[in-house]
Predict the 3D structure of the following.
Amino acid sequence: MELVSGCKDCEIDAIQLALLPLIQDSAWDDCIGHLQDSGIVIVSGMLEASGEDYTSLETIAQTGGLRQDAMWTSTEENAKRVADVAATMQLPLVTFHAGFIPEDASEERSTMLERLQTLVHIFGSRGIQLGLETGQECAENVVSVLEELSEPQLGVNYDPANMILYGKGDPIDAIKTLQPWVQQVHIKDAKATQVEGTWGTEMPAGEGDVPWKEFLPLVPEEVNIVIEREGGESRIEDVKHAKKMLQELLAC
């Protein structure tokens, strides 16, 4: 399969795997077996909320994560099925975007936190940690959510590039703030937008605004670092480049 081939090309034997295809597309029925036969370990999974529209910052702010009332039932049902699959795979962690949780003490914030707590319990009851992927909220707001819910099964999947892409704060300051809750880190890079209200630009690792020499020592030693490349026309080469960069920096 293409995923196994890509991992072999990159000389990578551990991945984070999107889990929705496993419950929605029969073409992925044999995925786990192929990965196991190829010696590839799945260190964590990803969940995607229903109805998300990433066309622009405005559309994802309105449709992302747990915000849409009309999509909540679908997201909850998918979460239950994904949690069952993740438990069967004995995954320790599943991550997702909660979706632009309001900072003010509003009814919408309360509703989103109630839904988030439901997901935490769905995964927690199966012994799985749930990680909030950073970027759609500033670090201080994420901390306020974590402290308000006070759920030991809930933490953070820290993505420094997302802080830049969404314009939600300095990636170094943010990881310092969120460090006690970091469960996993994405290695992804980006350049900030020059036009307010628009996306930044994802870049190959080392070519964006993330100061990797300063960033990597702040990553907790016990967590996995996972290379993520969502854009570009040469993702295999970009992942290889990111791996080489990490090897060189971590050897210093």
